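[audit] Reproducing an earlier prediction to check determinism. Same input, same settings, fresh worker. If the tokens differ from the archived copy the diff job will pick it up downstream; this log only records the rerun itself.
[audit] input (191 residues):
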Amino acid sequence: MLAGFLLVALQPAALLGQTDIEVQVLWRGRPATEAVVELIPVEGEARALKPDTVLIDQLHLRFTPNILGVPAGTVAEFLNSDQIMHNVFSPERRGDAFDLGTYPTGESRFHTFGQPGSYVVLCHVHPEMAAWVVVSESRHVGATDEQGRLRWEGVEPGEYRVVGWLRRRVVHDVQVRIEPGQTALTVEMGR
């Protein structure tokens, strides 16, 4: 019996009905850079992931990356790599404000994004600095690259909502069906 259990545990995700999906996001027919897209199950709850940590660096008076899509529970490490002091904060919108204070070069401060929604992250010292974080109830969330692409791993077949964020607001919300073995999805926003 134990050998059979180990065999099942070692099977690739595709054999268990899961697939990795390459997503192409378009805005009015062109690759959508700086977009965030979520894949949210229509029925049931999104399968949780172990909380992860992402790095948001402060370098050359910029947050890098300046756009992220993360699952709820993600911890953000805000590293100050500039040779000047920075402050990291997010204004209150729904009781989810935070202020990590002002700190010097080489130090990090941490914040856990627990509540789904969109957050603007700013610096009190340098008002031109801004980042945007979309926190999702789904583990299938991400920001597009320069070609308007992102990748979701371990997607199970089924009915989902695809929610697209652009310029800090929802601009796309449609229902799709992910078929067994499907490896690509095109999301066309702004039509």
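[audit] rerun output stored. Observation attached for the diff report: The radius of gyration is 19 Å.
[audit] end
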